Amino acid sequence: MNNQKLMMKNIFLSLTFVISLLSVNGQDQKLSLQQCVETGIANNLQVQQTGLQVQSDEINRKQAKLNLLPNLNGTVSHGINQGKSINPYTNSYINQNITTGSYNLTGGVVLFNGFSLMNSIKQTSLAYQASKMDWQQAKDNITINIILAYLQVLGNEEQLQQAKNQLELSKQQVERLEVLNQKGAINPSDLSDLKGQYSGDRLSIINSQNALESSKLTLCQLMNIPYNKNMTLEKISTENLAAKYEDTPDKIYSTALSQLALIKSVDLRTLSAEKGLKVAKGAFYPTLSFGANTNTNYSSAASQENFINSTNIASADYVTVNNTQYPVMKQINNYSSQKINYGKQLSNNRFTSFDLSLRIPIFNSLQARNRVKQAELLLKNSQIVAAATRTTLQQNIEQAYINMTSASDSYKTLLDQVSAYSESYRIAEVRFNSGLGTPIDYLTAKNNMDRANINLINAKYDYVLRTKILDYYQGKPLW
After folding, report:
1. Residues 119 and 108 in one domain
2. pLDDT tens, position by position, 390-415
3. What share of the chain in percent tops pLDDT 90?
4. 142 occurs within a structural domain
5. Do residue 106 and residue 166 come from a single domain?
6. Does residue 479 sit within a domain?
7. Are residues 317 and 213 part of one domain?
């Protein structure tokens, strides 16, 4: 029930988000990272399918518990017999058309079967818990992908703004040189060089704009919503980028083992496989069952004889007295035949029985043994998957930590580089504007500063992404 409520909540959030997009049609949308993630989770097909699997496994768990209850089955049959047949009421032959009915109620309960039923309950319960962890892992996967796409949009937005700033600087220089060129105060090639730079900056804006729209499209696709070119995102704080990430790879890995849904899932699958092995071994034990049965029947030919009176009649026998024959009188009881009604037949013909049975497995084509072997293989495979998952997780954390460290070092180095190139550009601009510097010197300094700023933007969001991944491994909030 909780899972269904959660799914309905996610669907409601998704519908609310889409309706809000359509209602403003053309207006800017300020979306937070949390809103994007929640919408993506609610709309993601894999998340929805995994949620359905959770519900299916929950039904299996409940059914395993219900298997402990007794079974009760009823049978009703009616028939018409023509010609010579047996009267089910008297078990004698008759030659007439009759209508028959039979009613049976049978119940039984398993008292012992090698604890297979109890272990099946544990097995399905563990499988249900594992499915919930798989569901959470599916949500985590789409969360990481949306975070990556979200940061890509923010990075492309900053690169577009950087390209616009570059274009504005080039435009100002072109306008200044056009005035000077009209006065014949500069070499015409200086103006041509700046115009070439201006065109290149315009091309950079086109490329940056295309990259931004592509990243927005990717984000919308991950959220499974219509593409909205007017969508804008809330900025992420980058104030603590220079701070050192406190946790070590070993600590992150240790925390991930207890926090990550992926690890919980493989461990629960292993425990479920262990119970599955016990279920299979239960087939080697005898099965003790208790059963009860009650039935009755009806026949349209059923009748009963009712006594009317007794009369004396002469029989064929006689006695001789004094040479005179006298017939022997005998008493005859007179009866009338009467149909037995439906209700009375059901009451009179009722039969009840109870039984206690013990089924001992002796030979069943080695099915039980082979099922045990299959369960053992499934358990070994689960153990291998669990070990491999842990190894892969540790390797991914170590690689992610190295990537984070590298991104942090790159960001700090690029901060210094941007500062240095910005100063070089300032000096080159002053010299160029005063006529002491050449266009080549100016363009070289400008291009160096532009590249450094672009690299700094990439490094900043790369570092943010790396820290988000490490936070995810530890179960920390991602926004």
Report:
1. no
2. 999 999 999 999 999 999 999 999 99
3. 57
4. yes
5. no
6. no
7. no
Write the CA distances from 313 to 319, 320, 347, integer angstroms.
Answer: 15, 18, 39
Q: How many structural domains are present in the chain?
A: 3
Burial class (CB in 10 A: 0-12, 13-18, 19+), 83: exposed
Q: How many residues does the chain have?
A: 479
User: What is the distance between the alpha carbons of residues 151 and 233, in angstroms, rounded to a whole number?
Assistant: 10
281 & 207 share domain: yes
Note the pLDDT of residue 318. Answer: 80
Q: Which CATH number fits the domain that encloses residue 376?
A: 1.20.1600.10
What average pLDDT does the segment 244-248 reach? 83
Tens digits of per-residue pLDDT, 82-122? 777 776 656 677 777 888 889 999 999 999 999 999 999 99
Instruction: Please indicate, yes or no, whether residues 447 and 389 belong to a single structural domain of this protein.
Output: yes
Contacts of 287 (CB under 8 A, 6+ apart): 110, 112, 113, 114, 358, 359
Domain containing 348 equals 71-112+289-302+340-360
Same structural domain, 28 and 65: yes
User: 3-state SS string over the chain?
Assistant: CHHHHHHHHHHHHHHHHHHHHHHHCCCCEEECHHHHHHHHHHHCHHHHHHHHHHHHHHHHHHHHHHCCCCEEEEEEEEEEECCEEECCCCCCEEECCEEEEEEEEEEEEEEECCCHHHHHHHHHHHHHHHHHHHHHHHHHHHHHHHHHHHHHHHHHHHHHHHHHHHHHHHHHHHHHHHHHHHCCCCCHHHHHHHHHHHHHHHHHHHHHHHHHHHHHHHHHHHHCCCCCCCEEECCCCCCCCCCCCCCCHHHHHHHHHHHCHHHHHHHHHHHHHHHHHHHHHHHHCCEEEEEEEEEEEEECCCEEEEEEEEEEEEEEEEEEECCEEEEEEEEEEEEEEEECCHHHHHHHCCEEEEEEEEECCCCCCCHHHHHHHHHHHHHHHHHHHHHHHHHHHHHHHHHHHHHHHHHHHHHHHHHHHHHHHHHHHHHHHHHHHCCCCCHHHHHHHHHHHHHHHHHHHHHHHHHHHHHHHHHHHCCCCCC
Mean pLDDT within 42-63: 95
Q: Are 300 and 99 in contact (CB under 8 A)?
A: yes
Residues 123 and 255 in one domain: yes
Domain assignment present for residue 421? The answer is yes
**Mean pLDDT, rounded, for 337-354:** 86
Q: Are residues 81 and 24 in the same domain?
A: no
Question: Averaging pLDDT over each range in 210-219, 232-241, 322-331, which range is the top one?
Answer: 210-219
Residue 478 falls inside a structural domain: no
Beta carbons within 8 Å of 171's beta carbon, 6+ residues apart: 198
